[in-house]
Amino acid sequence: MRKFTFKKLVRDKIVDLQISSGAKPHYIKLSDEEHKQQLIKKLLEETNEIANASPNNIVSEIADVQQVIDDLRQKYRITKKEVVQAQKFKRNNNGAFKKGLYVEFIEVPENHAWLDYYLNNPDRYPEIN
């Protein structure tokens, strides 16, 4: 029998489907903390799949992302209402992403309120010399 590495979280019915098809999955049941970490990893995987999805598959890929978000929310015992409230707060304070504004870079003076934040997050905001 040929073997293929998975090393990833799969949907709940996948192992049973693999077994019923004649495959032999080797799997473990994750601890709660491991499960949370793997859901986060899965979210990154699924969002990358959206980037590469054809127009015909985009709905399916968004559904996968939403499923991971819903499962993460439940794992962290966060209600939908809490998420909606946080969304509303952020939207009211900072807006949404509807306009498609894309900042190439920003110049800030030495006394700018956000300077320390940018400097403390060089992986997200590398300084240009």
Average pLDDT for all residues: 95
Outline, from the CA principal axes? elongated
Task: Write the element-wise H/E pattern from the N-terminal end onward.
Answer: HHHHH
Helical residue percent band: 40-55%
User: What is the subunit arrangement here?
Assistant: single chain
Radius of gyration: 20 Å
Total domain count: 1
Strand content: under 5%
Largest sheet: none
Gap between N and C termini, in Å?
56 Å
DSSP, total strands: 0
Alpha plus pi helix count: 5
Low confidence ranges: none
Structural class: mainly alpha
How does this structure look, described?
This protein has 5 helices and no strands. Helix 2 packs antiparallel against helix 3. The protein has helices at 14-20, 32-51, 58-75, 80-94, 115-119. It has one domain. The chain is mainly α and 129 residues long. It is 50% helix and 0% strand.
Supply the key terms.
single chain; 129 residues; mainly alpha; 5 helices; elongated
Topology at a glance:
Layout: H1 14-20, H2 32-51, H3 58-75, H4 80-94, H5 115-119
Describe, in short, the structure shown:
This protein has one domain (14-119).
